[in-house]
Amino acid sequence: MSAPTLDETGAEDRALAKLEDRRSLTGKTRSVRLYGDRIEVCEPGETLQRIRLDSVTQVRMSVEMAGRDTQVVCRVASKSTQIVFGSRSLSGPGSWQNNAVEFRGLVLALHKALQPRKLAVRFVEGQTLGFRLIMGAAGLSLATGGVVFAGYMLSVAGSAMLAAAALPFIVIGGYLAWVFRPGVPLPYNPDQLIARFERAPEPDAGRASPD
Q: What residues form the membrane-spanning segments (predicted)?
């Protein structure tokens, strides 16, 4: 499907905001563009995803990992599809480019464009259930492994010192399992996000957006 260049009246269709984003090593860098009536994900000469603004059902903001750093990720969903973009773009194995300025501009323009329908759109913050399950399971595995190791060292090897070495793994694993336990996403006020973004100084790519 070719990317449209004209709107319904024949006038030039200009993007209100855009962001170049790459989500994975196997994926290409794609352009996320917001127009007056839709948001699209495009490659040169082709539109890969499109959601009309009047069909948006949910906007989710979350803080997620980007290598050794964190990034803010925005998910715009309709009943049939989802568009995802973040404040950092993958530039190579373990390397992420800071796109915080463009990300803030796109998120701000998106929330302003959705203002007429804000009562019909669910605005939430927090990681997705799948991400929480993965991180929670990793934490639980780490804590369980630490407990098993400590128990073995105490009961079989008789070494309290080696058993104590497992304590950091138990604590860190337990913390991860607790922090990323499945839970209900929290709603946020889109008006507050707009006000905060408009008055905020230079954005931080890894800082959560809504208060």
A: 129-154, 160-180
- For the beta carbon of residue 106, count every other beta carbon within 10 angstroms: 24
The pLDDT of residue 7: 42
Which residues, in sequence order, are CB contacts of 146 under 8 Å at separation 6+?
166, 167, 168, 169, 170, 173
- Of 193 and 2, the structure prediction assigns the larger pLDDT to 193
Residue 167 three-state SS: helix
Q: By C-alpha distance, which of 19, 125, 3 is closest to 75?
A: 125
Give me the half-sphere count of Cα atoms (radius 13 Å) on the Cβ side of residue 87.
Answer: 24
Which amino acid, 161? M
CATH classification (class only), 17-127+188-199: mainly beta
- What residues does each domain of the chain span? 17-127+188-199, 130-178
Q: Are strands 82-86 and 69-77 parallel, antiparallel or unpaired?
A: antiparallel
pLDDT digits (tens, 9 = 90+) for 55-79: 999 999 988 878 788 899 999 999 9
Rg (CA), the chain: 21
Beta strand 46-52 with 95-98 is: unpaired
Q: Is the pLDDT of residue 144 over 50?
A: yes
